[in-house]
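Batch manifest, entry 17 of 40.
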Amino acid sequence: MKAVMITMTGREESADETVKQFNAIGIEVERFVQGPERVAKPDNNRWNSKRALQACLDAKEDCLFIEDDLSIKPDRLLRGIEASITYFYLNEDESRVSAWYRGTDLEVMREITRIRNFRGALLRGYETWEDRLKDFQLTEGLRTPITKNYLYGTQCVGIPLEYLADLIEYCDYTYTYGSPRITQRNVYALDGTLLKFVDKFDTPVTVYLPHAVQHRQVRIRRMGSRLNAYSASYHVPSDLDDPNFVPPGLPEEKVSVKSHAEEAPPESNETKEAKPKRKRRTSKKTKDFEAPETTEVTEAPPNGLVGTVSIGGK
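Output type: structure tokens
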């Protein structure tokens, strides 16, 4: 299995911290960096994600697709890598878990998402909701969700080789979504594309519970954090948790980093000339406003991490 990470310039510290955790369990990570000229929006996310998926397809290996701001339960993650599309993290919310689980799983998931969301008296003397969730327990293992609704969260997802070519091709389709109250978009980021893909082609999907991965939500060059984007189940003990687990690590000779400069300018959707703006009427009370130019400072990734870094590309 080949681990590939999507990241952006300016997020090197967060990406390095995530790579170190995967290196510690013997997994090398290849990084694909979205340059400063590409803002954080769905089409750029999908462009960079396609590059990462293509690298796995070219290598003829299963894909472990990860984002750059993760914390992991190493023993859970190693136990959970299987031969189906497997989510090791999802955006959990009380309104969503009922679409995925039944029985004890549903009862526990409803309760722990309520504790995370509302806290207050639900903490029962604990200082944080994370500590409160340690009173619960879930039987660890793969779950087949009852429906594939709301499977959002590609922070860490295993994608077998057999699906990669079709998924990459499916990324090239254009979608629209929204409502009269929601701004229309003409493309999905990878999480929305993958959700559409598994639903349309009835692809087998599993969820690893409790989650092996937590989303740290580092917001550099991103929108603000959301409470339901923190996994609740990540903090719930499982029947297989081993406090004495020792990560296998990587051989010393494999510790290296390769950095690839951008080889080509951004795709046409990012390089089109801006259309001249229509002049609008102004009054003494209203004047046209132009945002000041901003610059970003980027740093080269430090040595000592395993994998390769690719910036930009074709």
